[in-house]
Design a protein that fits this description.
By secondary structure, the chain is an alpha+beta fold. The chain has helices spanning about 1-5, 15-25, 60-65; strands at about 25-30, 35-40, 45, 105, 110. The chain has a domain at about 1-75.
């Protein structure tokens, strides 16, 4: 409870909690556990599961929350093609981020380029 009152990066703040209780109507949840709400005036918001990170919203819910579509994403209606990859959040700044110099050959670090020396 202490974290919820004083930190905004741990799920939701106390103000958002109260606003959700009094004015929010739960519309749905996604695969990651995020909850999506709206009020009578069609204001839409998301309560993230865990740490707040905007890249955790899937493309279907992103369209709904930004008023691109009024169709609420449904797991049963979802048509996925074989070429579509599952959603993953942005890994920038983590140990899972892409680093092109991480390529190694036989245990040695290998750079794709050589530095210029005068």
């Amino acid at each position: 409870m202490f974290k919820q009152i004083f930190t905004w990066w741990n799920s939701q703040t106390f103000g958002t909690f109260l606003y959700t209780i009094f004015f929010g109507k739960l519309v749905g949840r996604d695969k990651l556990g995020n909850k999506y709400y709206k009020n009578k005036k069609d204001k839409r918001w998301v309560i993230y599961k865990g740490e707040i990170n905007a890249s955790k919203i899937t493309s279907d819910w992103f369209s709904w929350i930004h008023h691109t579509t009024n169709n609420i994403p449904d797991k049963n209606k979802e048509k996925k093609y074989t070429w579509q990859k599952p959603h993953s959040e942005n890994k920038t700044g983590t140990s899972d981020s892409y680093r092109p110099n991480r390529i190694s050959k036989a245990g040695k670090k290998f750079k794709k380029y050589e530095t210029w020396k005068p």
